[in-house]
Amino acid sequence: MKKLPLLLTFVFLSVMVMAQERAITSTGDEVILYDDGTWTYADGDKVDNEEIPLNPQSFKKAPGNTFLLKSKVFNVGFYINPSKWSFEKANSNEDAEYELQLKGQDLYGMVITEKTEIPIETMRYIAIENARDIAPDIRIVEEEYRMVNGTKVLKLKLHGTMQGIKLAYYSYYYSNPNGTVQYVTYTSQSLMGTYEQEIEGLLNGFVVLD
After folding, report:
1. Phi and psi dihedrals of 98, rounded to 5?
2. What is the Cα–Cα distance from 116 to 85, expressed in whole angstroms?
C-alpha cells in the first residue's frame, strides 16, 4: 500500500464505487483511493512489484491435526483437527473440491484444486482475479513465501468489500507438475484477528503426498 504524495504528479478522473474512489492516472492506470489517504492499483497485476520475502521460520502441522483430507485431483493433502473443523465435498462452489467451517463459528475454508501446473509467482494474480469477482476492491495486505511441512507455499492476506461487508482472506497457494491448489480461508475483517490462530492451525496442515 502506498501513500498519496502531497503534490500529485498525475491527474485523476474519479468515480465513486462502494465507498472507495476510483481514478485514472495520466499514464492510464486505474487506481482505488481510500479514506485514509492510501491507494492501490485497481489492476491486481500492479499491486506491488517488490520481491516477495521468504519467512525464515518453518511451519508444521499442529498435533491436533490428526485427520488427513486427501485431494482426489492431485497429490496434496490437508491435515485437519476434526474436533474443530467440519468439511464436506463442495456444493456451493463448482470450482472447489472441499468446503470447511470452524464448527459453530463464522470462519470458512475452501480447497480449490486443478490438474494444471501454474507457476507460484503467477498465483497471486490469479488469487486477486478470483477474489475480485466477489469483492471488486480486493487488495493484498500481507504476502510472503513459507516453508510448510517442507514445502514452499505462497501466503496471501487479502482485504476487500462486498456490498458493504468487509471481507478478509488468508490463504496458501501451491503448484507442482501434477496440479495446483488454493487453500483459502475467509471471514470478516473484524474477526480475522480473533480467528488467526485457528487459521494458522488449519493452513499449516497442508502437505504434499508421495
Report:
1. -135, 155
2. 28
d(C-alpha 134, C-alpha 16), whole Å: 18
Taking CA 71 as the corner, what is the angle to CA 93 and CA 180, rounded to the nearest 5 degrees?
A: 75
Rounded CA-CA distance 129/206 in Å is 23
Residue-wise pLDDT tens digits, 24-38: 655 556 666 655 555
Separation between Cα atoms, residue 68 and residue 96, nearest integer Å:
18
pTM attached to this predicted model:
0.76
The Cα 29–Cα 18 span in angstroms is 19
For 2, 27, 136, 195, the CA distances from 130, given in Å and listed in that order, are 23, 26, 10, 23
Please report the domains of the chain, with CATH numbers, ordered by start residue.
Answer: 2-42 (no CATH), 54-208 (3.40.1000.10)
Burial class (CB in 10 A: 0-12, 13-18, 19+), 136: middle
In degrees, rounded to 5, the angle at the alpha carbon of residue 76 between the alpha carbons of residues 71 and 82 is: 65
